[in-house]
Write a structure and sequence with these properties.
By secondary structure, the protein is α+β, with helices and mostly antiparallel strands. The protein is built from five helices and nine strands, in the order ββββαβββαββααα. Strands 2, 3, 5, 6, 7, 8 and 9 form a seven-stranded mixed sheet that branches. A two-stranded antiparallel ribbon has the order 1-4. The model has no long low-confidence stretch (mean pLDDT 96).
Length: 248
């Protein structure tokens, strides 16, 4: 197998030049990532533009919800010489987002787990916010609930277009289930199966977000609004709809 990036560029940043990329090399005693200084990754040119659009939007959401200003972004790889979107330079393995405020960050090795001894529920809600914000820009977002391979990073790629919320996609189902459980108090499994319990919890989540008059499973515009509301409330560290209600 060989790299198949048809329009490669090397960049040390996404969003803006000052938002540098830093590579994770180790973990602290608590499990959060230890990262290098600025380093370069190879991207497909169009994918870098997508990453830039995403992190700019995330920064705007994070500032309004939590006074969180992006400082740098941690990664464990973009272009890798193997089959699939990594080989094409259209996938990013996200490890960390650091704020300009000291000690304020989202770490993808720890924050999916609200029972982590060094983190907590507010951090998990912010992790959900990151995943939801990503899903507005790419069709595939793999989190710590997707499978064991992604418990230490969030993978996102443009192998699929941005679509409405899909019941038959484990990527979307686990994100919705985690949001229902950790942002709306639902006692449901995060198992990737969209059954009756998930359907009922999803209905209550839409209502909590003020989205009961919209159809995130039917059209992309409503899906992106649904995800934006999750991201805003998640970054605020509150229950669904508590700080940023929707239009319904």
């Amino acid at each position: 197998m060989s790299c198949r990036n048809t329009d490669p560029i090397r960049r040390t940043w996404i969003g803006q030049v000052s938002w540098e990329l830093r590579h994770r090399t180790a973990f602290t005693e608590c499990g959060t990532g230890v990262h290098t200084g600025r380093h370069a990754e190879e991207f497909n040119r169009a994918f870098h533009a997508t990453c830039t659009a995403w992190i700019r939007n995330f920064n705007s959401v994070a500032i309004s919800a939590a006074n969180f200003h992006v400082n740098w972004i941690g990664d464990i790889g973009v272009t890798v010489c193997k089959a699939g979107t990594h080989g094409e330079g259209r996938a990013f393995d996200l490890s960390h987002i650091r704020s300009t405020r000291g000690g304020f960050f989202i770490d993808t090795n720890t924050d999916w787990n609200p029972d982590h001894p060094c983190r907590g529920l507010r951090q998990t809600r912010r992790y959900i916010a990151v995943a939801a914000s990503l899903r507005r820009y790419v069709g595939t977002v793999l989190t710590g609930w997707y499978n064991d391979d992604h418990k230490n990073h969030i993978h996102f790629d443009t192998g699929e277009p941005v679509l409405p919320i899909r019941r038959d996609a484990r990527t979307d189902t686990t994100l919705v289930q985690a949001t229902c459980r950790y942002m709306n108090g639902e006692n449901i499994a995060i198992d990737g199966v969209w059954g009756d319990a998930t359907e009922r919890a999803y209905f209550r989540l839409r209502r909590a977000l003020g989205m009961q008059c919209r159809s995130p499973r039917r059209n992309v515009r409503d899906a992106r609004l649904f995800l934006q509301l999750i991201a805003r409330n998640g970054m605020a560290g509150v229950r669904a709809g508590a700080a940023f209600p929707g239009p319904c």
